Amino acid sequence: VEFKIIDDFFKPYSSHRADVLLGIGDDCALVKPPRDQLLAISTDTLVEGVHFLHGTSAHSIGHKALAVSLSDLAAMGAEPAWVLLSLSLPHIDEDWLNQFRQGFFQLASEYNLPLIGGNTCQGSLSIATHIIGVVPPSKAITRSGAQPGDGIYITGYLGEAGLALLALQHKIPLSSAPLAQAQKRLDYPDPRIAVGLALRGIASAAIDISDGLAADLSHILEQSQVGASIPLANLPISPLMQSIPVEKAHELILSAGDDYELCFTVPAKLEPELKQVLKCPYHCIGVIDDIPGLRILDADAKPLSLQKKGYEHF
Ligand SMILES: [Mg+2]
Fold first, then answer.
1. How remote is the CA of residue 3 from the centroid of ligand 1, in Å?
2. How far is the CA of 209 from the centre of ligand 1 (A)?
C-alpha cells in the first residue's frame, strides 16, 4: 500500500487561500494569479551532507527548506503566495515526518502560505521546495539594476551560520551558549520578506546572501556591469562574532553562506526613505563604482586576494 505522504501527512495542515481553486490531491493545483501582478518563481534543493549536516533535526530541516525559498522571494521584493514540496526520503519515519511538517508549517503559517502540491520518492534525504510569489511588474528587484554611486547595504549580521557550521564540525572551539545562538542562525534562518517588500521602489538591486557576501555581491556587480571597493572595516561584526579572531570573523562574513540576509543597493537620493521603511538592523558597507569587479580593502586600503569567494555549487 502506497503511503500518500503529501495527501495524508501534509494536506490537513496547510493553510487556505481563496486564490487556490484546487489544492493538493489532483494532478495539478489550480490557482488564480492576482490581476496585473507578475509571478516570481523559484526552486531550491537541500541535500543531506551538502546543505545540512547528518543528524540535523527534522524540525529545522522543515523550517530551512521553506526559508531558503522564501529568501529568494524576499530578494526580489515578492510576496509569498504558494509553495510545493518534493521529498526524497531513505525510508518512512513518522516521527521525522511529524517534526519536519511542524517546522515547515510553523514558518508557512507566518505568511499564510498554502502548500498546493508535492511528491515523495525513496532515495537519499533531500528536500526541494518550489515557491511562487507575486510582485507588481515595475516593483520586482533584480540583480542588474545597481548604478555607480548607489550605496551597498546588508541587513543584520553575517557569518554566524558559518560559525555554527565550523563549531559543529569541531573546526573552531565555541562554548555552548554562543554555539546555541549561532546554531539558531544556521538551522532557523529568518527570511527577510518584510525587508524585500519595504525595498520595493527603493532598492536598485538585491540578492539574498546564501553563498557568502563576496560571491553574492559579485553577482550583483556582474549583472549590473559595475564594481565596488569594500573596506574590511565597513563589515559589521556581531557581538557573537566578536568572540572569535577578527580575521576569522572577516573570512566568515565574506565567504560563509547560509545567513540568508539581503544585500542590496540604493541610489543616494533614496537613502532618507530607506531609513524610514527599514525596521531591522542594516549597514552600508560601500558604494557602487564603475570599475568592474569586487575589491575588498585591508586597513591600508590594499585589495585582499580572496581565497575562497563563497560556497561553490559545483
Ligand atoms: Mg537567492
1. 33
2. 7
